[in-house]
């Protein structure tokens, strides 16, 4: 069973130090929410992530801010476009039977056409209980995205095939997040539970996993109301 927890936003200038703090908070949250991440060989010690590189073998990346900052600096030096498109890392954690966690993100960029993002892919046993709402809350509060969701291939296929969704556009899964500007456009009578987050915006509990029909219905309702309209192109801000 695989799901993805995602957040997206527009151009937002950030230093490598600021991005490293966000990355550290993200990995700390994962260690607290997913026991497989926090169950290191020493009690209370998180497992070591491996960093995937475009060329060469993966390397270990300790879960401390100094190591993360060094990895971001190295990524910036290797990519001459990083100031424009953002600085990214791709991490993976595997080893437990039937578990694999991938975290990839790009932030700090000023591109008017490419969204910045944080995407957490979780492959887990079918019987595992995954705290979807808490994971998306963590992404929303740490990265302050414009929109986000918890979704899978079945939902994305349905939105594309039956809802006219195109990759790169705002969407929802069985859990969704909308920034304050988007939340203000929620239509009256939207029959989904919502929770105001401390950093602004709302978390939407749309449907149980597997209920693709209700996700599609709500997606169409929110899109028609303007809550899922794309950022203006070229993008001039991080959120609607």
Briefly note the structural class of the backbone. Answer: alpha+beta
Query: In whole angstroms, how far apart are the ends?
Result: 33 Å
- Rg, Cα atoms, Å: 18 Å
The count of strands amounts to: 10
Helix content: 25-40%
Poorly predicted runs:
none
In N-to-C order, the SSE pattern is EHHEEHHEEEHEHEHEEH
Number of helices: 8
**β content, as a range?**
15-25%
Count the domains.
Answer: 2
Question: Any overview of this molecule?
Answer:
It contains eight helices and ten strands. The protein is of the alpha+beta class. The chain folds into two domains: 1-132, no CATH class; 146-240, no CATH class. Strand 2 and strand 3 form a beta hairpin.
Task: Briefly summarize what is shown.
It is built from eight helices and ten strands. It is α+β, with helices and mostly antiparallel strands. The chain has two domains: 132 residues, no CATH class; 95 residues, no CATH class.
